[in-house]
Amino acid sequence: MSLADLAQTDTVIPDDLRGLWDIGRWCEVEELSGGAVNRVFSVRTSAGRYVLRRYRAGTPSQLNREARVTTWVRRHGLPAIAPIISVSGELHVERDGVCFALFPFADGAQKAASDLTLKDAAAAGDMLGRLHGVLGGLPTAEWRPPRLLWDRSAWEQRLTVLEHAILGRSEADGRDEIALARVRAQRAWMAHPDCRHSHDLGDGLQVTHGDYHHGNLFFDEGQVSAVIDWEQMALLPRAYEAVRAATYMFDGQPERTAVFLSSWRQVSGASADELAQGAAAFSVVRDHWVWPLEEVYLFGNDRARRYIPDAPYEPFSATWAQIQTAP
Asked: What's the CA dihedral at 160, 165, 169, 172 to 10 degrees?
């Protein structure tokens, strides 16, 4: 697809972006399927291949902070992908309220979750431990931790809205039936007396990648060769991120989860108690997780459908208990 074709389609990429980076003549632009929130494009030029990201949300100050952190990580020898500075010295450019950034194309290849091997799990855990070591050196004064507090009745209402949206689809399929069953089971759990609706993160917080999982990793020769998509960076316990990453990558599969977490703990030095605390914090967040459901059924973003598990809903504490007791 040519740049002119894209420029005529919902003005996705303004035509004047072509001269903003010193990367040669733009030859071909192709939208990639990876992003569930932002739109991502492969850009081939006379000088090579690049990635252009069109942000759906995020202020310039947030995006500039992302660039500062990825630059910091790269200076410490780890493969974060940082944006390319424009000819006018900008890390991100803005057009009509929309932010764009250009990145070098990452080395290696991405893998589907089903293709991740035990070696990949170990490599991903090792890289996360190394990242946490580097990110732990960043000052945290400008960061604010998330507040883990949910109103039970409001969350039950959100799930009811989702239930009506799914039931109102004119052409439902098997995926919608699974989503509907998950919504109803999640709503029932919200009303259960054992469901926790708050959590105190306590001390020991640090800057984290915020969205570490296989979709944001590239692999090459058995190692992680690039870590991308840093816009969800957050001040969190490092063990929270480790448990979240394992969940997103391996969906409760015990063997690969254990290898990943063991590799992370070996590098980070985290204790079993720290890991348990991270799991407790993530459990509350995961139990209230409705983002992909709302993206698909309320906002029409079908790219988020792949994040809706193709399995019955269960509280995360049950998933974690199965992982912990697996041989």
From this structure: -50
* DSSP letter for each residue of 156-190: HHHHHHHHHHHHT-SS--HHHHHHHHHHHHHHHHH
Global pTM reads: 0.89
Angle at CA 191, nearest 5°, toward 296 and 309?
A: 30
Say how many CA atoms lie within 13 Å of 143 toward its Cβ. Answer: 21
Residue 51 scores a pLDDT above 80:
yes
Lookup: tokens for 200: 């105190």
SS3 state at 325: helix
Q: Which domains does the chain have, with CATH numbers?
A: 3-104 (3.30.200.20), 113-149+197-288 (3.90.1200.10)
Q: Which helix (H) or strand (E) holds 116?
A: none
Choose among 40, 26, 15: nearest CA to 303: 40
CA dihedral 300, 54, 120, 254 (to 10 degrees): -30
In the block, residue with structure tokens 């570490």 = 212
Q: Any idea which of 66-70, 146-150, 210-214, 242-246 has the lowest mean pLDDT?
A: 66-70
For the cut 50, the answer to whether the pLDDT of residue 6 exceeds it is no
Q: Return contacts of 185-190, CB within 8 angstroms, 24+ apart.
A: 185/312, 185/313, 185/314, 186/159, 186/287, 186/290, 186/313, 187/156, 187/159, 187/160, 187/163, 189/287, 189/313, 189/315, 190/152, 190/155, 190/156, 190/159, 190/287, 190/288
